[in-house]
Design a protein that fits this description.
Elements: E1 28-35, E2 44-53, H1 62-97, H2 105-117, H3 119-139, E3 144-152
Antiparallel strand pairs: 1-2, 2-3
């Protein structure tokens, strides 16, 4: 039968800088597979992976610029509020479980009760942060990352 013979290496996907203003290609977390996708007898490349990009923003007017600054300050305050909530939770857990075996049902129940006690505050803070980030993203688009599947058909 003989040894296999291979041709010279050829790039299948030309190298390109990551990013851009829209998803164009897989950037990270690549999962390639080779198959005859179109049934023509040639092998095609299917690649799953993540693409990263930052959508182009638009020029903001003075009111929108002021709103951006308000949102940034609001997010900073909400992050501080969230940190305080979690510091309180951590302190209460430490106090409630100090004498308990970490693996015990009693310890687990105490931790669950503390999280339940603070769930309204945690969820409220999370919802406010999410709404502020969403509004800010409408004004100043943030970097995006999303999984896609690309087909590179051999023609």
């Amino acid at each position: 039968v003989g040894a296999p013979s291979f041709g010279a290496l050829k790039p299948l996907i030309a190298p390109k800088e990551r990013g851009g203003s829209e998803p164009q290609r897989p950037d990270v977390g690549l999962y390639p597979d080779v198959m005859d996708y179109d049934g023509d007898g040639d092998l095609d490349l299917v690649a799953g992976g993540y693409s990263m990009w930052t959508p182009k923003g638009r020029e903001l007017n003075s009111q929108e610029e002021a709103r951006v600054e308000e949102l940034k300050m609001e997010l900073k305050a909400l992050e501080e509020e969230s940190s305080k909530i979690f510091e309180t939770i951590s302190k209460e857990i430490e106090e409630a479980t100090a004498e308990l075996n970490d693996e015990s049902d009693e310890s687990e129940e105490a931790v669950d009760a503390i999280y339940d006690k603070h769930s309204e505050a945690r969820n409220g803070s999370r919802k406010k942060m999410s709404a502020a980030r969403e509004e800010l993203d409408e004004l100043i688009p943030s970097p995006k990352s999303k999984s896609f599947v690309w087909l590179y058909e051999r023609i």
